[in-house]
Design goal:
481 residues; 4-stranded parallel beta sheet; uronate isomerase, domain 2, chain A
């Protein structure tokens, strides 16, 4: 993992070298050793939201505030909670509300409110990014805001901070973006056609043509028809269009699909029932419960397609998205107002697992915002069904305490082999190393505890740490293929 030159970092780093390690000196000593074995391993980033056009164009990253504040939902939500309007942070409204375009002013608002992030993963990530990636030598405060903004702006103008240089300096081996079924894949094509060896691939995210409750669902069906030259007004044609679109993603390098559903409900209806259900939702004649039933059936259909074409399937469950309707109306979807909600897996996944749960060549990775299901449902299921793997803590639980709770609840039942390592879910290239560094430190601390309790030896711990940082994600997401 790349950082600024060691000679400078030792003198000026604003982050402690033992951050996140256990406080017990004996355990901390073991954690340091384990961490050093993973610290510079390549980064596999199998799920994120970076813009592929930045890498296709080998662009400079531009304004620090746009890159590090406006894109970051973690920062936006906490600042908004304390009264800062989103438009004052550079978020563009759908109406004619004036939006702040002065990056220096946006950065100053962050600095003035930086104390809000004490004790949060956002503070850990941003402190690391400022110090270890951008070479900032003083803490971010209101009085240092303008100077730091100038330093970062200047540094982002260097050739070493262009997108492809950062990819290489960070040691990224594989970077997956997240792309709707109707997404334009031109940027990915330009990357493949260039002589640059970086591996940046799309991920097939078909929510826009599956979620009937989206306002643009039928428009997206028409767009899917255009992209595939297929009649999406019929059930067979709709399925054929999805299969073809998946093939187009695979040709663009995709190794996985991703599905963001309110629940984990699956269904396995009879053929005639499926067709009648699709006809109702496609013609805007849906009955109560049809939207959830259609999503449930389509999860099963997507699993069947994954068995055929080899895409790893990711399922994100337990998020009430766009919980704040005022923000959704003013700024559009996915502005960061998601909230955790209860989820059920044992019953909800059973129709799909009855049909596909014992397939050795199929991989389904599950993420949830209902961490109460980790030990009660997900770990026992992943510890039994060959198709299931547990995704790392996500959104609110992508945090030091969230990761520790995750390991405490799942490892004894599912083991480490049924996990998929870590993914950063990042929206900016600049923040990727920070997130992986936090995960690797937490891994080292957890494993050091097992070593010092004599539950495993240091050799086993080192191997598991390497797997959690690199090997598991590489294998689960078929990076080597």
């Amino acid at each position: 993992m790349w950082r600024i030159p060691v000679s400078c970092a030792k003198l000026c780093s604003t982050v402690h070298e033992d951050r996140l390690f256990p406080s017990d000196p004996d355990v901390r000593r073991v954690a340091r050793t384990i961490y050093e074995g993973t610290r510079f391993l390549p980064i596999i980033s199998p799920h994120g939201h970076c813009d592929p056009s930045v890498l296709a164009d080998d662009a400079g990253l531009g304004d620090p505030a746009a890159e590090l504040v406006t894109k970051d939902h973690y920062l936006l939500r906490l600042l908004y909670s304390q009264g800062t309007p989103l438009e004052a942070l550079g978020v563009v409204a759908l109406d004619d509300t004036p939006t702040e375009v002065d990056g220096r002013r946006i950065w100053r608002r962050l600095a003035e409110n930086y104390d809000l992030f004490r004790g949060t993963p956002s503070r850990l990530w941003l402190d690391y990014t400022l110090s270890e990636v951008l070479g900032v030598t003083e803490p971010l405060r209101a009085e240092s805001s303008d100077d730091i903004y100038e330093q970062i702006t200047n540094r982002l103008g260097w050739d070493d901070y262009r997108a492809r240089s950062l990819y290489e300096r960070f040691g990224i081996e594989f970077l997956a973006t997240t792309d709707g079924a109707a997404a334009n894949l031109d940027a990915h094509a330009r990357i493949r056609q260039s002589d640059w060896p970086g591996r940046v691939v799309p991920t097939f995210r078909p929510d826009d043509v599956i979620d009937v409750e989206r306002g643009d669902f039928r428009d997206n069906l028409r767009r899917l028809a255009e992209l595939t030259d297929t009649d999406t007004a019929t059930w067979p044609g709709y399925l054929d269009a999805l299969r073809l679109r998946r093939r187009q993603f695979i040709e663009a390098g995709a190794t996985a699909s991703d599905h963001g559903h309110p629940s984990a409900a699956t269904a396995d209806l009879q053929p005639s029932e499926k067709e009648r259900l699709f006809t109702r939702v496609a013609k805007d004649n849906a009955e109560p419960g049809d939207a959830e039933l259609f999503r449930a059936q389509m999860l099963t259909e997507m699993v069947a397609m994954s068995l055929d074409d080899g895409l790893v399937m990711q399922l994100h469950v337990g998020s009430w998205r766009d919980h704040n309707p005022l923000l959704a109306a003013r700024f559009g979807r996915d502005i960061g107002a998601d909230m955790p909600k209860p989820a059920d897996f044992v019953a909800s996944l059973k129709p799909m697992l009855d049909r596909f749960g014992n397939e050795p060549d199929l991989t389904i990775v599950i993420y949830t915002l209902d961490e109460t299901t980790y030990g009660r449902e997900l770990a026992p299921m992943a510890g039994h069904y060959p198709v299931l793997r547990l995704g790392p803590p996500w959104w609110f639980y992508d945090s030091p305490q969230g990761m520790r709770r995750f390991y405490d609840q799942v490892v004894e039942t599912a083991g480490f082999s049924n996990l998929v390592g870590f993914n950063d879910d990042a929206r900016s290239l600049l923040t990727i190393p920070a997130r992986h560094d936090v995960a690797r430190r937490i891994n080292a601390g957890f494993l050091a505890g097992l070593v010092t309790e004599h539950r495993m030896d240091e050799r086993d711990a080192a191997e598991i740490a390497s797997d959690l940082a690199y090997g598991l994600a590489r294998r689960a997401f078929r990076v080597a293929t």
